[in-house]
């Protein structure tokens, strides 16, 4: 029904009407051609030729009719086909020129004409060139009108909406062909500069005129895109004075846009005084010095950080006289961003931006050392602490990952780079940083292909400068890039003369797309914008931004690691440990080499060695080499790889001439605490045996270690751990327990028949035990002489044996009866006490073959963390010294968990023979330290002796 009514209205327009009816028809048409709501009606207006009548009525003398007709044409010119017909077929430009001549000061008419001009120039038909070439009077009038508005007092005769439409028209006329004419011939920037001074002064005092200032800023942003130095000259030489300085005074109106204008003009400026860069820096610095803004971390804080970092992109802005206290302030802001707000992702992104900006100063030594003086390394250490947690207690827990995963992290960042390039490439504008020594040189390489974590634009700060509310692809309107909403409609609602306002309502128009083609994809653009703006908050994972932050920290630390002289703070245990822990965020082996390169570069400085040795850094790193989840866990492999690289680098430094000299000097001349700290880490990092022997024996390191082992203190467990590393990894003491028991042999299963001659033994408990006389005499010299010699027992059938247990003697008799291979020990099914008593009986009865055989059985099958104290105590108590060395060796090199090993040593010390235990450990270590290959004929592949019996006498 509404469509039929509109058709009837258009049909009535074809007939000749009087002015009153014509006005009503035009008003009805105006109501039904809102853009883009009634886009179909605009198409009908064009297809039925009604545009001709609308243009023709512009010749009337009735101002109200002209107003409505201009309003209709303003909406219709948003459609590119209608705009083409209006200019080419109906020759609207002369009509507009005549109207401006007839009504040179009429606010509503001028505003609507300016709007039509702006909408025409938004299309690809280059109507701006046509207007300037064929009807320059229109442009001249526009400039003159705006000049008068700039010079006049604010008496309300010219509305803000009209001035806004005039400024917009001058902006839309700009292209590469019209630039010089607009700037030099018609002086547009001088007039705009005068408006900037007028409304900038007004805004400073009353905060009014902000809408005009926003449109002026948009115009200047478009003009600044072109490298044309007269643009700066024109703005500095207006009739009201230098207008560029007012950019710093109205900075808070649109900070990002103004900074972008300044950065664009910096590319072509010739004098330091051309731009108010120091004043803009001072404004941002004053804002960020407000602690409340940092604590709240609102949009203002984020915006100031991004703008300040973007200004520092230009090398010329990094001089103290221009940037002021920007560098110390950024470090303070970085420190105060605690990553505890509700918008943690945004905070991390700001940290990434600040760290990246600090790294841009790497070719300016004075700024780099200023960063060091401002405790940037302490701030970075705290940031890493917030990311990976503390190092005490050590927290490296992770889930076992046994799957083969593709490295998708690189592809995600590459996609982000493409998206960043799409976001900020504004109509093919070149946003790269000025070519200078500041050009990026440090890049990451993977698979021989360049891969840089920074976005595809000049830097992260340029990415930050793009509005989250205005991210759009290249096809979107220019004005949408920086998030200032465009308004191509009559949002000023001027009242038409001679018309009752109730009969002629001019509604506020919605924001309109400039062309039909763009409007079709506007929903898609908004959808992309929403996705991009949510990328940092909802869509992106927290891990992703943390990875970027760690990566930027590594890049900055690489810069500091190149400084001469080296910085002591780089070698602090906390910083290095947190860097290693941060590897958990990376896919392995991708980017792991970057971190490994940085840490090894830091450790090259030998002054870091002793402080690290006097901390818990080296033992913690050594623990990283353990595979918690097995060899198939990628994270375990990752930590093992980096920790092995760190240990290798420390070994190289420690074994160098300077390193071993410093360690030896501290062992000989240092205080007791220093000596204790050093001996607890020397076995971890010194691999060369001659150097190790000199440090431990000649410089007294071993005695200090033995003293720590003997004393009950917090360092006792650490001494146990380092002794185990020294024995197993450095000296190569073999593990006496080489096999695991699979099955046990039961003596009763291999019982032989009854003997011909039997002897009976009477034991202390009165029990009797029968045995084969000849078998005992054959296997034991003791029984041979006792039963067959000149003793009285040789003629007795019942012989008394004191201090012998029935069970042990019975097992010995059964063992003799068994046909066993004494060269192949087996696990006999006996309890440990019987086993040990059996060995003692064999030694007492001079049965050396059985004694060695049973000792080998215990050594191979019965040594464990629970049995070692029992066996060692028995060896000392029986004074046989059997298995004494084996117990010490197993306690040091056995495959035992740390908790079980500590419990085992506590039980050993509880035996009451501490001095003997410590001395046995010392002798074993000394023997292997002084052992040469020529001392033993039995060697393992690694050159170490495989038999404890070859090295020590029991």
UniProtKB/TrEMBL annotation:
Region named Disordered: 468-496
Domain of life from the UniProt record: Eukaryota
PROSITE patterns per UniProt: BTB
A single BP term in Gene Ontology: anatomical structure morphogenesis
GO CC aspect terms: cytosol
Matches recorded under InterPro entries: ARM-like, ARM-type_fold, ARM_ARMC5, BTB/POZ_dom, SKP1/BTB/POZ_sf
Pfam families named among the record's database cross-references: ARM_ARMC5
Polar residues: bias regions: 468-479
Domain BTB intervals: 757-816
Gene3D superfamilies: Leucine-rich Repeat Variant (1.25.10.10), Potassium Channel Kv1.1, Chain A (3.30.710.10)
Name listed for the protein in its UniProt record: BTB domain-containing protein
Organism: Asbolus verrucosus
Species classification: Eukaryota, Metazoa, Ecdysozoa, Arthropoda, Hexapoda
